[in-house]
Amino acid sequence: MFVDEVKVHGRAGHGGKGCVAFLRETFRPKGGPSGGNGGRGGNVILQADHDLNNLVAQFYTPRLIAEDGKPGLGKGMDGPAGKDLVVKVPCGTLVWRLPSPPPAPEEESGKETERTTLLATSSRRPVMRHAGSERAMEINLEADKTPAVNDETEKDLVADLTEHGQQFVLCKGGRGGLGNRNFATARRQTPRFAQPGEAGSGEGDYLLELRIIADVGLVGYPNAGKSTLLTAISQARPKVAPYPFTTLHPQVGIVEFADYSRLTVCDVPGLIEGAHRNVGLGHEFLRHIERCKLIVLLLDMAGTDGRNPWDDYKQLLRELELYDPALLERPRMVVANKMDEAVAEQNLKKFKRRIPKVPVLTMAAAFDEGTENFKKILRKAVYA
Ligand SMILES: Nc1nc2c(ncn2[C@@H]2O[C@H](COP(=O)(O)OP(=O)(O)OP(=O)(O)O)[C@@H](O)[C@H]2O)c(=O)[nH]1
Ligand SMILES: [Mg+2]
To answer: Does the beta carbon of 280 lie inside 6 Å of ligand 1?
Structure first.
């Protein structure tokens, strides 16, 4: 399963409470206050890890709760701190803080219960219960008007974990309370109190969103040959098949060169007309090419399934623009695939006549024709 967006709940550990104790030892019957401090609560820490490629672990364990600090002990012993919870996420994870849901109308319903109970005790007429249920209905209707938690405008970006090993403290553990030995003074030699531990900070709902970080993004209609191309230039082995939407989630391949330099290429599912209206697989997966330095528009120049390469090209640009107009500003390359097919040459001529100024790279990915040249051009474009 591939998960690139997941809502989690984070809560740091509570600090342990301070201890109230007095030392009693042989020959020291009044050894003075000796309560130790409570331990610090554990933090919830997110850590980027390049061995992960999606957020499936957080999908199954969305409650990220760190350990509480232990209370202080007698003889001046401090309680141990709660263990930090280190959660590994893939590189390219954005962390959004979601608004906390508005508190349930407890006061209202509390008052109502009180009133109903009072009424019920004074006279046990069924009409009272009826009045209560009507009121409850009113409250429910109000609760429905509350804004959706996932509302785009309300979420707040708090971190972007891009580098392997980068950490972000999502929720900070609470401080442990001080034990009573900290409160002894010359005039108050037997303090019989200690501090309670503090609650951790940052508790709440968060949205983790993965936006893959790759150098090159492959965009095209289904069946254009994106996965075939990725297979030809890298060690990645995405599924290749002659039916649309073979690729259902993004795949990253690493292209290696003779001098050991490398670049990453991301193959995303096919994009079709109306993707912005959620046609096909929608266009949400375009978030994974948002961070690419170069966008490769891969066209099926053979026009398989009665398609027209020029229409495909225009439609792809339109869908990119509808997703995010900034994507059109990104350097891009037009690649004509399936040039081994008979009609491809003719289609290419027509296509070039329409956009004479845009260079079009030709290839037949399935037969490894033109793929070496493509790799060289990629490298030049990315490292330029
Ligand atoms: N003749 C010919 N067929 C090709 C070429 N490249 C890919 N194909 C075929 O086109 C079909 C689709 O290829 P894929 O690589 O799965 O296409 P895709 O763009 O990844 O498709 P989706 O994952 O569905 O978006 C397969 O049957 C490939 O064998 C090519 O250069 N020439
Ligand atoms: Mg594919």
So the answer is: no
Read off the pLDDT of residues 36-67 as tens digits, 9 standing for 90 and up.
999 999 999 999 999 998 999 999 999 999 99
Atom of ligand 1 nearest to the CA of 240: 16
- The tokens of 256 are what? 């290696």
d(CA 283, CA 217): 14
Please give the C-alpha separations between residue 148 and each of 6, 133, 155, 242, in angstroms, as whole numbers: 15, 26, 11, 41
């309300």: which residue's tokens? 154
Q: Tell me the pTM.
A: 0.80
Angle of helix 344-354 versus helix 309-323 axis, rounded to 10: 50
* Model pLDDT for residues 124-151, shown as the tens digit of each residue: 333 333 333 444 344 344 444 444 444 5
Q: Which ligand is nearest to the CA of 241?
A: 1
236 lines ligand 1 (CB under 6 A): no
Q: Which ligand is nearest to the CA of 374?
A: 1
Q: How far apart are CA 117 and CA 62, in angstroms?
A: 39
Residue type, 168: F
Q: How many residues does the chain have?
A: 384
Q: Which residue has the higher pLDDT, 292 or 151?
A: 292
